[in-house]
Design goal:
Chains A, B, C, D: Belongs to the TMEM175 family. Chains A, B, C, D: It is a multi-pass membrane protein. Chains A, B, C, D: InterPro entries: TMEM175-like. Four copies of one chain form a homotetramer. Chain A has one domain (13-212). The first copy, chain A, has nine helices and two strands; from the N terminus they run βαααβαααααα. In chain A, helix 4 packs antiparallel against helix 6 (118-148). The first copy, chain A, is an all-alpha fold and 227 residues long. Chain A has a two-stranded antiparallel sheet. The first copy, chain A, is 70% helix and 2% strand. Chain A has helices at 15-31, 46-52, 54-78, 86-101, 103-114, 118-148, 161-186, 188-205, 213-219, and strands at 11-12, 84-85. At the A-B interface, helix 1, helix 2 and helix 3 of A face helix 1, helix 4, helix 5 and helix 6 of B.
Amino acid sequence: MNRPTDDIGNRSDTSRATAFSDSVFAIIITLLVLDLRVPDVPPGRLLSGLLEQWPGYVAYLASYAYVAVVWLNHKSAFNRVKESDRGLHWVNFSVLFTTALLPFPTAVVSDALQENDQQDQRVAVAFYALIGALLCASWLAFFHYLARRRDLLKEEVSERHFPAERVRALVGVALYVVAGLIGYLVAPLAGLVIFVVLPVFYAVTSGGLYQAPLTRRIARRPPASGS
Amino acid sequence: MNRPTDDIGNRSDTSRATAFSDSVFAIIITLLVLDLRVPDVPPGRLLSGLLEQWPGYVAYLASYAYVAVVWLNHKSAFNRVKESDRGLHWVNFSVLFTTALLPFPTAVVSDALQENDQQDQRVAVAFYALIGALLCASWLAFFHYLARRRDLLKEEVSERHFPAERVRALVGVALYVVAGLIGYLVAPLAGLVIFVVLPVFYAVTSGGLYQAPLTRRIARRPPASGS
Amino acid sequence: MNRPTDDIGNRSDTSRATAFSDSVFAIIITLLVLDLRVPDVPPGRLLSGLLEQWPGYVAYLASYAYVAVVWLNHKSAFNRVKESDRGLHWVNFSVLFTTALLPFPTAVVSDALQENDQQDQRVAVAFYALIGALLCASWLAFFHYLARRRDLLKEEVSERHFPAERVRALVGVALYVVAGLIGYLVAPLAGLVIFVVLPVFYAVTSGGLYQAPLTRRIARRPPASGS
Amino acid sequence: MNRPTDDIGNRSDTSRATAFSDSVFAIIITLLVLDLRVPDVPPGRLLSGLLEQWPGYVAYLASYAYVAVVWLNHKSAFNRVKESDRGLHWVNFSVLFTTALLPFPTAVVSDALQENDQQDQRVAVAFYALIGALLCASWLAFFHYLARRRDLLKEEVSERHFPAERVRALVGVALYVVAGLIGYLVAPLAGLVIFVVLPVFYAVTSGGLYQAPLTRRIARRPPASGS
């Protein structure tokens, strides 16, 4: 990795990484709407056709909210980064990769819930939960990388920040696994409801979850004095 | 919401928010063209097939103009914002969300007007009007937020600006509701015409509607002296 | 249009306009590939299926090159703009609008040339030429606006620049009309070949066409001294 | 190419070129997911339907990794560029063009491997290899252009850098040709595996391949002293 010729590009400011990521998130969030289709119904049945697609709207809402939260997380994380290197690009690519997958399980869930097969619905919800958990896992890798690379961060960033974010990502993995199990074992619709609620939960807590007693205990880090 | 660890990211400049929004608008405005499809006609009928799709072209034009106006509004609003916070991001997400929905009712209207069922056409136009009104409602939330958060605005921004914009958004909600009712109760085509005219109206007035006597009376705000 | 409340946003730097336009061009140029589809052929016929789609590849190439030239034109024009106002945004929207249409006639031409109906092929090529001419016409409006708004331009921009660009756009309109006529009256394939050649011609001349004797005579402007 | 009127736009900083390219890469990497479709299976068979699509997932992964590496390459190259001119834009367009093609062979490979026809699978893998090789060839043109245009580069860039990158691109062409031959002559699946491995190989070596003895010998350039 050491380059005798020149060192340009090994480390760089984060402007292109954030611009690229913003574009990716913007496309993902907008592609989701492509799965809202004109219902294929006989003449005169458009209204009921539109209404019967409601699981598609709920799935759309869940994924839209999820990507919105990912964007906020991403913005909040990169605000703390001074310089990016190749490793950071790859953990960033893993976040973009799993986020870009989201329209796929969204379409699967939306389709399955508009059919009547219970087994398919269970599979679909479990599949969505799997991708949701993978997305949280990619954040875990992302935060873990930054938790160990103080040199890439801005000086004023608290030492506790990224270890605490790591906990939040781990909680996310767990929550999507639980949602998948509930959706698979109990009722697919219950899983779908959780998919809508989870991003809201994340949005609300993203400012301060790691100050909560529980996660503080998990992170086992003393409060930084005067940061 | 208070973070003992560090305060980075709670407040930030608006560059990523506008870049992300620009990408979203660009994608929405470009996705619309995906609903202009090669007509599925027997050999030798391409010309008539293309001509018979005219409602699709009108719907495309209406939605394109709408998104263009949304972009101008967005640019004009963020030009006045100094700093964004989490609340502003969420009202911004609500504007992006409703704008991103637009290709869906556009396709529904375009399809229905190419079929012969009057009832479906009424439903389709009413549906478009509903999303159009929701989009104006999301602007209402956006402007309302900024009308109450002077601290996020640039110093030179008139105190009257965002309250007046709020009125304009409210007028928009009303106009789309009226267009929906006309389209549903009177004639779908009349509704479609209004959908094309409305963004034009907005584009023309966006510089000065709130100086008009009517809206001034609604806003009930004395003219700011020397702004 | 005069705003007693504040003047922010009436005039602004061009950064968001160019960022938005870049995103739109990027999406258009990339959407074109969506019309390259896996051929729907019986097993064992993939190779011939891929080869038989060659008109699609040519159409793709023509449109890709066209959008690339539009981007270069756009960049070159905005490099000369100091400030944008609402009127410039609208002529810019008209350029983006006609460019965004391009994937539609591209798909129509690609489809028609893969069928065997001569009449459809003529219509398709004429349709492509129509949109190509409209795109040049939107540039005409764009350059015309800037030719008359010296106050929006950077100081060092030659007075002759945008009037000369106007001529180039007019020549483009004429060339696409001619290509459409040749494609319709003579042979569709000849039209398609012209569509591929035209952007190349534009790319080559975009640096200096207006210095050519012909266009100089049309523009009837004395050479600016010492610009 | 010399313009008596003004010189603006002939040379320019690279900000719009990189912003445009970032958008294009972002769209390509995200469009890939559109080929992951809800399986068209009878009720109750969703799980096996999802599992049987595994070649689609592998193809998606291969192309995603390829685009990610292209983006890293692009970023690394443009970090060394001070100014862009028209020629650089055209070699850049050629890189974007071949990258934008990638979703097409990805879909072809993904489809063919889900069918049972050996001949089609061979064609599909060879087709993917062809586009992969073309993409490396466009990089070759890109690096070749910069290897000869020292005046466009930043001062601190080593003279050896772009000649060495050229070698790396040439190796890439060769590797994709070999992968295509193996896929065509030996086994399609072997080709697919190589498609996944190649970007990883590129990612790992992109920091330092040209320091390796082999490529140094090919490039036949003495080490620059003190760069």
